[in-house]
């Protein structure tokens, strides 16, 4: 791992964390409304995966997609303005938190219906295959989404036609408030890919280096005609499912046990409901950012002044994004009609 | 020149062939569209000509292969998805309603959606309740989707070509019983805009607004009404979203009477929208409230005679017109 890569990973993870914390704050202040699903805790997945992609690849995402867009390169100000519903948002205020789209960066959208990302991704993959290009469609989905019919339909087609699609499961162990052992008969998601003969692996989704290494390899295999791959990243979200969810269904003990699947901790999960704090999780040392920072410092790639420097850089960027969003005007109804009729080059059909 | 009588399915087939020959980004996918040639022969010969990448047989996965079309359209391909019947399109409502119709809008206009979804719809012959539905109303209520309902080989040809060329997501509902109906096709004629309604027969006493297979019903009714000195004007809507209100309004302002004829169930069906809007727009021209001739609000019975009794007949249209004309103007003798 070279120093610049490490620095880039850390910078993007810190940006992601700062951005999401700022979004939470703006939500509390009433500047952001609606559903807001935040990503703290899962940064290593977005950063590890998206840093392995090329600009010519496509990313298809879910409603928890702010960080996917940010790491892909969408300016924070345009993401924040979209969360505010403003005209300068990346989707012109028509999409909101759950529907970020960035055509320029081949960011094919955030989708609010669980299970929608697979068909879109295999469609992009099909188009790539027809054109014979060395591109890949990256398809993000959660552990809860693997029980949707489209998972099976789309994996079948992807495998059948050897489509260039990388399926990335962000297994944060929860489908809103339902823990994976209570929603899935097979909790090791990667094993399901075997049903379609798709090579799959599980990685520690708290380790940005591992995630990056495995996805880089898989992307190479896909580009050289190997067909689809699936990677399951085991991760954890530090906040509730959305801002509307305090996460009270999660037991304290889980702080120490969340990576484990043994029956004892399972039993305890059922009986001691209390949501772990950010600090508690950090202490455990599983927080991806904490982990990467420790690694950088320990291996002598970074010094703490440098880390502080990155932190203040991203803080400033996020602060600027919030100000930009605040100043951006609301879109007008005419903008909405224009977005609806954009395909007709705004010819009205009467 | 070039006018010939062909089957409706052949007209669709020619439209696909012409578009595929002209543009590499056009491709077809659906169950049995390839090797088998399509349940109604619409894709016959195309697999041999264009190969399996461009004419793709899919598994029975309506949600995902329709969604695949959405994803491909986002990258600039021009997919034509065939869903075996409109009944199975219920499984594809998510990609149609939540994706195809919404992505151009939700992306702030960044992504066009040059997607065409074709499907037979309507009551055929004794296929039972799960294979005999008219779900146009379900799709009409979705802003962002366009719906074409070609009634003739000529329109099938024009509208499919126009749909493929358009950047809007467009659904073609083709009636099961029209595939093997014959009509003239002139491939060189200048096409009407896809959404423009057509006046198929001029008249002065009553306007019959219809679409798809029921246009033929209305024309037959109009023929018989003429013998009774009731001159019916027949309008083929051709498009259910958007609807060409101007053509309808002009007609109603001339005839002062309106009957909407549809195979859709009456309650909250497509005709309800037509009747309500034209009642608003033509209130001062109408001599009587608009009438609807529609299917009964019942799942289609399997039994043949009950099935026929559940959907409009020529007789139903005639008696509605007689009634309306005598109520509204006793001067016109039924
Ligand atoms: C089809 C559908 N059903 C239900 C929901 C409501 N819902 C939103 S998020 C969610 C949980 C999804 O969990 P997962 O896929 O694990 O993703 P995570 O939120 O953990 O990132 C549910 C049930 C939805 N959006 N779409």
Automatic annotation (TrEMBL), chain A:
One of its GO terms (biological process) is pyruvate decarboxylation to acetyl-CoA. Its cofactor is thiamine diphosphate. GO terms for molecular function: pyruvate dehydrogenase (acetyl-transferring) activity. CDD domains: TPP_E1_PDC_ADC_BCADC (cd02000). Residues 12-265 form the Dehydrogenase E1 component domain. It is an enzyme of class 1 (oxidoreductase). This is Acetoin:2,6-dichlorophenolindophenol oxidoreductase subunit alpha. Keywords: Oxidoreductase, Thiamine pyrophosphate. Transmembrane segments: none annotated. PANTHER family: PYRUVATE DEHYDROGENASE E1 COMPONENT SUBUNIT ALPHA, PYRUVATE DEHYDROGENASE E1 COMPONENT, ALPHA SUBUNIT BACTERIAL AND ORGANELLAR. It comes from Gimesia algae. Its EC number is 1.1.1.-. InterPro entries: DH_E1, PDH_E1_Alpha_Subunit, THDP-binding. Pfam families: E1_dh.
From TrEMBL, chain B:
One of its GO terms (molecular function) is pyruvate dehydrogenase (acetyl-transferring) activity. Keywords: Oxidoreductase, Pyruvate, Thiamine pyrophosphate. It comes from Gimesia algae. The gene is pdhB. It comes from the Bacteria. Its EC number is 1.2.4.1. Its cofactor is thiamine diphosphate. InterPro entries: THDP-binding, Transketo_C/PFOR_II, Transketolase-like_Pyr-bd, Transketolase_C. NCBIfam families: PRK09212.1. This is Pyruvate dehydrogenase E1 component subunit beta. It holds the Pfam family Transketolase_C. SMART domains: Transket_pyr. It is an enzyme of class 1 (oxidoreductase). Residues 6-181 form the Transketolase-like pyrimidine-binding domain.
């Amino acid at each position: 791992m070279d120093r610049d890569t490490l620095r880039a990973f850390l910078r993007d993870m810190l940006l992601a964390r700062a951005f999401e914390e700022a979004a939470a704050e703006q939500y509390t202040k009433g500047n952001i409304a609606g559903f807001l699903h935040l990503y703290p805790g899962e940064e290593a997945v977005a950063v590890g995966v998206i840093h392995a992609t090329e600009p010519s690849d496509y990313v298809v995402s879910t409603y928890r997609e702010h960080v996917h867009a940010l790491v892909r390169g969408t300016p924070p100000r345009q993401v924040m303005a979209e969360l505010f519903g403003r005209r300068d948002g990346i989707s012109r205020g028509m999409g909101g938190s759950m529907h970020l789209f960035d055509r320029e960066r081949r960011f094919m959208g955030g989708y609010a219906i669980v299970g929608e990302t697979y068909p879109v991704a295999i469609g992009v993959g099909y188009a790539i295959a027809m054109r014979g290009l060395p591109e890949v469609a990256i398809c993000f989905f959660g552990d809860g989404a693997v029980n949707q019919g489209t998972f099976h339909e789309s994996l079948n087609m992807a495998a059948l036609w050897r489509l260039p699609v990388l399926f990335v499961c962000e297994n944060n162990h929860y489908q809103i408030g339902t823990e994976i052992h209570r929603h899935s008969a097979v909790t090791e998601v990667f094993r399901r890919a075997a049903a379609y003969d798709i090579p799959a692996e599980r990685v520690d989704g708290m380790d940005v280096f591992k995630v990056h290494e495995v996805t880089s390899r898989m992307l190479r295999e896909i580009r050289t005609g190997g067909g689809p791959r699936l990677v399951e990243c085991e991760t954890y979200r530090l906040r509730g499912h959305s801002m509307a969810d305090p996460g009270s269904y999660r037991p304290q003990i889980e702080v120490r046990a969340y990576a484990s699947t043994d029956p004892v901790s399972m039993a305890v999960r059922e009986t001691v409901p209390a949501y772990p704090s950010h600090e508690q999780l950090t202490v455990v040392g599983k927080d991806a950012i904490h982990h990467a920072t420790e690694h950088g410092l320990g291996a002598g790639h970074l010094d703490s002044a440098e880390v502080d420097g990155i932190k203040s850089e991203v803080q400033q960027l996020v602060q600027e994004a919030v100000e930009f969003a605040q100043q951006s005007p609301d879109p007008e109804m005419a903008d909405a009609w224009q977005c609806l009729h954009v395909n007709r080059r705004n010819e009205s059909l009467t | 020149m070039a006018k010939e009588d062909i089957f409706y399915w052949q007209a669709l087939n020619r439209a696909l062939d012409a578009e595929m020959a002209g543009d590499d980004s056009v491709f077809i996918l659906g169950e049995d569209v390839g090797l088998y040639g399509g349940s109604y022969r619409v894709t016959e010969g195309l697999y041999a000509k264009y190969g399996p990448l461009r004419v793709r047989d899919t598994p029975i996965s309506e949600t995902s292969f329709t969604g695949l079309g959405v994803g491909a359209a986002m990258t600039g391909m021009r997919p034509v998805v065939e869903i075996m019947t409109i009944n199975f399109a219920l499984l594809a409502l998510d990609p149609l309603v939540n994706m195809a119709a919404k992505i151009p809008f939700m992306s702030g206009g960044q992504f066009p959606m040059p997607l065409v979804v074709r499907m037979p719809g309507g009551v055929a012959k004794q296929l039972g309740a799960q294979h005999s539905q008219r779900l146009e109303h379900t799709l009409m209520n979705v802003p962002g989707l366009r719906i074409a309902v070609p009634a003739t080989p000529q329109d099938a040809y024009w509208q499919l070509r126009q749909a493929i060329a358009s950047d809007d997501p467009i659904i073609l509902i083709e009636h099961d019983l029209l595939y093997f109906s014959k009509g003239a096709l002139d491939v060189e004629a200048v096409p009407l805009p896809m959404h423009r309604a057509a006046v198929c027969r001029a008249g002065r006493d009553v306007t019959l607004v219809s679409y798809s297979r029921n246009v033929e019903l209305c024309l037959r009714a109009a023929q018989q009404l003429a013998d009774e000195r009731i001159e019916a004007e027949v309008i083929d809507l051709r498009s259910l979203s958007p609807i060409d209100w101007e053509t309808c309004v002009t007609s109603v302002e001339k005839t002062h009477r309106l009957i909407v004829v549809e195979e859709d169930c009456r309650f909250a069906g497509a005709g309800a929208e037509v009747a309500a809007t034209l009642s608003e727009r033509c209130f001062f021209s109408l001599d009587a409230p608009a009438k609807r001739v529609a299917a009964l609000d019942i799942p289609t019975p399997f039994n043949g005679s009950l099935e026929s009794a559940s959907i409009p007949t020529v007789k139903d249209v005639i008696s509605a017109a007689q009634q309306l004309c005598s109520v509204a103007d006793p001067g016109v003798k039924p």
